[in-house]
């Protein structure tokens, strides 16, 4: 009997591998699983611990791998969202710029648009409507508007108003003002900048504003009708006209008194029509102004350097109708302003220009001498002479001296007329 040859370690391992291959050949379909018996010789404890460690290691590796993948995926999603957001913003900006460009192009080419053009807005196709060019506003001057007033039509209107409001003269005068407001409504503010005119013009130019543009027939028809209205109604109408003018003045100045709120400019009705009807009333019935002088002198709403040119214009209109009323109003309402501390050089010069205009009028000497005493009052009262003396001695400046010399010469001329 042959002795059994001892099997070496290498042969034993090779046999185990072949057996394992043959056992798994049918189930693995040709794939082979390599088994190392050397590792199986380790103790169960060591094997179990190694198995646990390997399991933990695989699990940790898998966890680390997937967390990295998920982290990169989150970063990619964030980058994609950020790119989408930027793309949406850029698209919105481009769409807005495109709409602005199209709007500008449509406004520039509105005359060249065709009925068949189409525009796409939010995916909808709409036909583009042709735009008509706005007609240019035709500038109408005061003279052009005044020339269109028909004297016969005005006369017929006044007859109807007088019949409808027979005993209500004030309402008749208001309707009279409405007629001229409609006649001068085409005249815009820029065509009659009365505030600028009153600041820059001389008294000689202001005296004819704006009646120099009214036709003679219209003026005569109006003044003949005004002459038949009551003095009380005319007095109320004159004050209403002044209040309207001063309200328009506040609008031009930009702020109301006691407020910082910006106010819109007034309509052209207050600028043209009110001046026209007020001037005609003052020229035809200047005596009415005498009864209003105390109110104009004492009421604060008629005081101030900004309102002085309007008051001066009112007295100039009254002096056109009656020189005596003009000088009387000047002495009682304007002369005290000259010596006031608040009076500036420009206002003082305008006041003296009006006095010189009154005294240089045709036949002024005979008219003023005959009207030296009016309704129990002197044309130049002693208080005016006292004011002249206080203003003359002492004179605070050379300019004041020149002004006082002009006033003194006027009073000397008046006294010479009276002595003659």
Automatic annotation (TrEMBL):
Q: Which GO terms describe its cellular component?
A: endoplasmic reticulum membrane; Golgi apparatus
Composition bias of kind Low complexity appears in 56-69
How does the entry describe its membrane topology?
Multi-pass membrane protein
Recite the UniProt keywords alphabetically: Apoptosis, Endoplasmic reticulum, Glycoprotein, Membrane, Transmembrane, Transmembrane helix
Listed Basic and acidic residues bias regions: 71-89
Q: Where in the cell is it found?
A: Endoplasmic reticulum membrane
| Stretches for region Disordered | 20-138
Compositional bias (Acidic residues) spans?
108-120
Xref: InterPro entries: TMEM214 (IPR019308)
Subunit structure, as described in the record: Constitutively interacts with CASP4; required for the localization of procaspase 4 to the ER.
Report the sequence similarity comment from the record. Answer: Belongs to the TMEM214 family.
* Annotated function: Critical mediator, in cooperation with CASP4, of endoplasmic reticulum-stress induced apoptosis. Required or the activation of CASP4 following endoplasmic reticulum stress.
What protein am I looking at? Uncharacterized protein
């Amino acid at each position: 009997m042959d002795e059994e040859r001892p099997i070496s370690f290498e042969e034993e391992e090779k046999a185990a591998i072949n057996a394992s291959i043959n056992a798994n050949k049918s189930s693995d379909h040709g794939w082979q699983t390599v088994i190392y018996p050397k590792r199986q010789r380790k103790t169960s404890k060591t094997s179990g611990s190694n198995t646990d460690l390997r399991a933990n290691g695989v699990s940790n590796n898998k966890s680390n791998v997937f967390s990295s993948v998920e982290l990169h995926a989150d970063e990619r999603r964030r980058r994609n969202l950020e790119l989408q957001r930027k793309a949406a913003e850029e698209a919105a900006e481009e769409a807005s710029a495109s709409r602005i460009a199209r709007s500008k192009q449509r406004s520039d080419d509105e005359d060249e648009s065709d009925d068949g053009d189409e525009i796409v807005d939010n995916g909808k196709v709409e036909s583009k409507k042709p735009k008509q060019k706005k007609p240019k506003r035709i500038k109408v001057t005061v003279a052009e508007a005044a020339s269109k007033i028909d004297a016969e039509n005005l006369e017929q209107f006044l007859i109807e108003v007088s019949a409808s409001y027979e005993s209500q003269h004030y309402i008749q005068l208001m309707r009279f003002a409405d007629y001229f407001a409609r006649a001068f409504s085409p005249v815009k503010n820029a065509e009659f900048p009365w505030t600028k005119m009153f600041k820059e013009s001389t008294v000689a130019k202001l005296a004819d504003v704006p009646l120099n543009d009214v036709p003679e027939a219209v003026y005569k028809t109006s003044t003949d009708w005004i002459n038949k209205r009551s003095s009380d109604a005319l007095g109320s109408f004159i004050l209403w006209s002044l209040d309207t003018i001063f309200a328009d003045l506040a609008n031009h100045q930009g702020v109301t008194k006691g407020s910082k709120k910006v106010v819109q400019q007034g309509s052209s009705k207050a600028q043209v029509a009110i001046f026209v009807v007020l001037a005609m009333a003052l020229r035809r019935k200047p005596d009415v102004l005498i009864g209003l002088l105390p109110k104009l002198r004492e009421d604060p709403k008629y005081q101030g350097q900004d309102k002085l040119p309007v008051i001066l214009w009112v007295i100039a209109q009254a002096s056109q109708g009656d020189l005596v009323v003009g000088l009387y109003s000047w002495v009682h309402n304007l002369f005290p302003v000259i010596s006031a501390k608040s009076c500036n050089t420009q206002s003082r010069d305008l006041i003296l220009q009006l006095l010189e205009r009154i005294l240089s009028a045709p036949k002024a000497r005979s008219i003023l001498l005959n009207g030296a005493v009016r309704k129990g009052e002197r044309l130049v009262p002693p208080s005016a002479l006292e004011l002249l003396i206080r203003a003359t001695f002492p004179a605070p400046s050379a300019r004041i001296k020149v002004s006082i010399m002009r006033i003194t010469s006027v009073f000397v001329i008046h006294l010479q007329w009276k002595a003659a």
